[in-house]
Design brief:
By secondary structure, the protein is an alpha/beta fold. The chain has helices at about 15-25, 70-75, and strands at about 5-10, 25-30, 35-40, 40-50, 60-65, 85, 90, 100-105, 110-115. It has one domain (about 5-50, about 55-115): 2,3-Dihydroxybiphenyl 1,2-Dioxygenase, domain 1, CATH 3.10.180. The chain is built from two helices and nine strands, in the order βαββββαββββ. The protein has a four-stranded mixed β-sheet, covered by helices on one side. The chain has a three-stranded mixed β-sheet with strand order 5-9-8, with no helix packed on it. It has a two-stranded antiparallel sheet with strand order 6-7. The chain is globular.
């Protein structure tokens, strides 16, 4: 048994593709107007446009990799807020510590994404 995919809702599909592909640096495939994001060896995150979707909460998905330092720097350099959550409080990371172990971002629709090592 395994998880086949997770669906997240967002806004503009092209803006979402730009964010997940060029800003986060993940592999994105467009199929029938929907986006699929590759994590590891599989396309597991399904992004679909929905104007009535509620986003912006604490529900999120997490992506694990050996080191999150380069990805955090890449995202911050592209103007996206990189932050941590401590006791439920958001703390913006003004500079990226070389020992960083996790961080969060929000996609253009407000969905929360965690990167962790």
């Amino acid at each position: 048994m395994k998880i086949d995919h997770i669906t997240y809702f967002g806004g503009d599909i092209e803006e979402t593709k730009e964010f997940y592909g060029n800003i986060l640096g993940l592999e994105v495939q467009k199929n029938d107007g929907k986006l699929w994001v590759k994590v590891g060896d599989e396309y597991i995150i399904h992004l679909s446009s929905s104007p009535e979707a509620k986003t912006g909460g604490k529900c999120h998905f997490a992506i694990t990799e050996d080191s999150v330092l380069d990805r955090a720097k890449r995202i911050k350099e592209r103007g996206v807020e990189v932050f941590d959550l401590v006791d439920g409080q958001k703390i913006t990371l003004e500079r990226i510590d070389p020992e960083i172990k996790q961080f969060f971002v929000r996609d253009p629709a407000g969905n929360l994404i965690e990167f962790i090592c």
